[in-house]
Amino acid sequence: MTSQTIFAPRHRRVLFLSVAFSCFVLSTDGWAQSERLGQTLDPVVVQSPARPPNARSTRHSSDATRAARSRQQPTISADARAPAVNPAGPVLAAPTLNLTGASTAGSRLGLTRLQTPASVEVISAETIAERGQQNILDAVTQNATGFTASPAPGNGGVSFNTRGFTGLGSVMTLYDGTQLYIGAGTVTFPFDTWSTERIEVLRGPASVMYGAGAVGGAINIVSKLPLWVPRNQAEVSLDSNMTRRIAVDSGGPVSKDVAYRITATGNMSDGWVDRDNTSNVALHAVVQIRQNEDVTWTLSTDYGDRNPSRYFGTPLINGMLNESLRFKNYNVSDSHIRYQDSWNQAKTEWQVADGISIQNTLYYLNSKRHWKDVESYAYNPATGLINRSSYIEIFHDQQQVGNRMDAKFRGHVFGMANEFLAGFDVNSINFTHTNNSPYGGSSSVNPYSFVPGVFSSPNPTVPGFGSVTNQYALFAENRLSVTEQLSLIAGIRQDEPTITRTDYATPTNSFEKSFSSTTWRAGAVYAPIKDLAFYGQYATAVDPVGGLISLSSANKNFDLATGRQIEIGVKQSFWGGRGEWTLAGYEIVKNNLLARDPNIPSLTVQVGQQSSRGVEASVGFLLDYGWRIDANIAFLRAKYDDFVQSVGGVAVNYAGNVPVNVPQTVSNIWATWAFAPNWSANAGVQIVGKTYADNANTMTRPAYNIVNAGVQWKPDLNTTVSFRVYNLFDEVYTTSGGTTQWLLGTPRTVQVAVNVTF
Question: Model pTM?
């Protein structure tokens, strides 16, 4: 059974007007002058136009093309080559030094990181390639300040933690600035970095930018754009887990007004645990059309098909990890997981006049997911066997269609430079959850030698529930330059979602529920000298109680959880752009957590509170003799302020305890050395403090340090050979898990890769 997408009348009207706008823009070709602005790009920086722009283009160059230049620049350099480290050369040869570059994660106004009163980072495609980070999870956790992950097959393997808050409901994932709504705790796209131009990371509340679900932070994966000079690239690699990877990237102009980009990757692996073959394919195709000097269309499509790891963790023996079980897979022999995601976008950028621009994004997402696994393993000391339970089969069928439009105005207010943006976001999500709840079935196996068996559950797999979520949002942002040194930035957003849930198993649990939330932020940036900025900001956020589109009948009467943050910090780019550093301090308080009534432990109430405070710092240097150093560190104190839970029918308050999956210290250190002509080496260490596996803080997952290293050789200008070792010292570490089983990280893995540009 499949539910049908239903649009409320107001949503239909807004979507109709959006499509009508796009058609209107398409007809404006005759309004503009005929001459187009050309670009010539090298692997690092954007060069001057190939021919002089006309007068109108000259007036627009500082505003209209600045964002386009900053976005295209990392795309050109997204290859596996080590950067040319020349102290006297261009600063942008260091891909990690980007404080003066624009970012969309913290603002839609096109502000640089120095101009944004928030903690924003940009991880370039060149950095990702240089360090051999082939998936989104590694790229974020090994580069971004204060980020860790708690991946599991049940959450799609892309669940992040930052600033004391964990999971997809508090740390949002976006693709090209669009929120991917969480279906029953799972997001499965994007996953591969080959089609990524850059990853933008915002630490702290992001609801005023993107809506509910980002009290901890947001991760925006920005896809590659077309190239206006021909360029082709291919890469093959093989590692010690028999992971075979092939990737291709082709782009260039079709005509003087049309350019394209196509990327594709394919991976197959034997896996690092028993019986865990995996495979995936990712495709990205985009065409950019310059209708005239003022209007640009960008049409893109993405597709991902994954058969990911079916390893759900290693059971603990008497509460301890037994390393002899490290490579055993306790899932059944016929287990199956598959994720299929497709994503289509149509973007319009229109420079209406000097100081006025409009952007519109129309998109459609379709996700299909399937799990058939035995997911829970617990050691029984009485029998010496592993008891397996949770014989789970689940299907997700999710469609998301929406449109986002904003208009930007640059001018003056009482003689002060002012930038103002306003827009709307409207979407509809259709979600169907098919399952075999209550997931019956059980078996017991010897921990050391066992026959995996097959999936067998007494419960049939039938449609469980379907939901249609219609929502719209209005947002605005403003930056007022009071003086050349002082600017004030503020934003506000109003979200209005309505969820209609149809419960197929228990029709009486069907309902319709509407929410309303207003989030806002206000901040100031003071730059006493060039490239030094002090800032402060107050921001609010909301998180759904469970995913909005899979809201349960039990949670429908609860309000959205609310959060607020105060942050102060300083950022500086120095030494002629060859160095930069940031320092930030913050406090976040989140209210309306679900808790148990202390007088009636069986009753759930919404009174809990969680808070975190911390200090984060980062530094980067481009040194002489081919050296580059990048480092960051985060110190955190996260705790429950009020969190009562029922334990054996007794109310227990975990106030003062650290939330699950939250390390108190996180650090990354990277060093790159171009030690000889055409040779470079890099090494990085990821340092993660201990975490707790339960709310009572009785079970600790140990701290760990992961070292990755690599050497790159360029036998000629267009070829790069890379030799990398991941987890160099073969650390046994845990990424997530509870009190009976832990998911372990990848052991030492050796990889050889060849990248060719032509």
Answer: 0.88
